[in-house]
Recover the amino acids of this structure.
């Protein structure tokens, strides 16, 4: 019996969606470099630093030293951004009395590398950032925390799960699995053709990122962070990472944990009406976490 072929129009549409999936996978793993175009002003002093990821890539960042610091925090940006995305958090932490290290992940900003792992290889970058910050004289005997949003949030969770030197973790808009992040992006970009687009992105992406997207799963690692404090933010109107991912991460995490859903906010941006409360929760989280650390020593 002759196998019936799909209609020509459907075959052309599927080919087009498949091609779009290839282009998206190529862009995601080889994103254009956005500029790191200015230093913060003199009220926000920075020191240019370079350091090595655990697997040997040279990464670029800024170190911000606070007076009479309570601890230090490493800030992790999203994909395909740069350290510029975290300047507001850096300023808040500096003013609250914390040393800050903000840097560019591999293949982004001013850092070395040609392929973005969208969270996979970047664990090596954050481990390198933790190494260099803890090696600084300014951090002698002080506790260290991390913050990340979007991809940086996923990296923060994955890294903290394996590195007990990280004593407090906060994220905003982190994905539960890379698979869920791809699926959500497919829904946003391809609508009714989302399954075809997702399959294409996953298939072509393995040319440059040879992992199963299901295996890159902060939801499977997050429980290992306990009993260190965990703070999760997520915008209720986030179209990039589904709100369900926030609930999945929260349910999988151990205590102590907090989840704050930002009613009016989207992905990593904070709506003006929610910024003041956000800043207060964010800075108090590290102050409280580090105070408990000092008490327990």
């Amino acid at each position: 019996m002759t196998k019936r072929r799909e209609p020509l129009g459907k075959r052309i549409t599927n080919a087009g969606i498949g091609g779009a999936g290839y282009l998206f996978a190529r862009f995601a793993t080889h994103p254009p470099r956005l500029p790191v175009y200015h230093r913060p002003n003199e009220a926000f002093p920075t020191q240019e630093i370079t350091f090595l990821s655990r697997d040997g890539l040279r990464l670029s960042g800024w170190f911000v030293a606070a007076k009479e610091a309570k601890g230090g925090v490493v800030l992790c940006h999203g994909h395909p951004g740069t350290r510029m995305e975290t300047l507001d958090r850096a300023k808040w932490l500096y003013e609250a009395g914390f040393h800050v290290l903000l840097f560019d992940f591999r293949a982004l900003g001013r850092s070395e590398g040609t392929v973005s792992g969208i969270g996979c290889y970047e664990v090596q970058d954050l481990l390198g950032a933790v190494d260099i910050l803890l090696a600084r004289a300014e951090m002698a005997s002080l506790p260290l925390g991390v913050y990340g949003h979007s991809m940086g949030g996923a990296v923060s969770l994955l890294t903290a799960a394996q590195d007990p030197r990280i004593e407090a973790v906060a994220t905003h808009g982190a994905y539960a699995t890379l698979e869920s992040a791809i699926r959500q992006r497919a829904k946003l970009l391809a609508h009714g053709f989302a399954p075809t687009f997702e399959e294409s992105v996953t298939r072509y992406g393995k040319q440059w990122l040879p992992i199963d997207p299901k295996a890159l799963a902060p939801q499977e690692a997050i429980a290992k962070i306990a009993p260190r404090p965990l703070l999760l933010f997520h915008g209720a109107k986030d179209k990039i990472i589904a709100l369900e991912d926030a609930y999945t991460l929260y349910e999988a995490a151990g205590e102590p944990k907090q989840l704050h859903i930002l009613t009016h906010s989207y992905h990593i941006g904070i709506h003006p009406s929610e910024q003041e409360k956000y800043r207060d929760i964010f800075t108090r989280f590290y102050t409280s976490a580090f105070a408990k650390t000092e008490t327990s020593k």
Q: What stands out?
A: Confidence is low (pLDDT under 50) at residues 8-12. The CA atoms of residues 95 and 280 lie 12 Å apart. The radius of gyration is 20 Å. The chain has nine helices and eight strands.
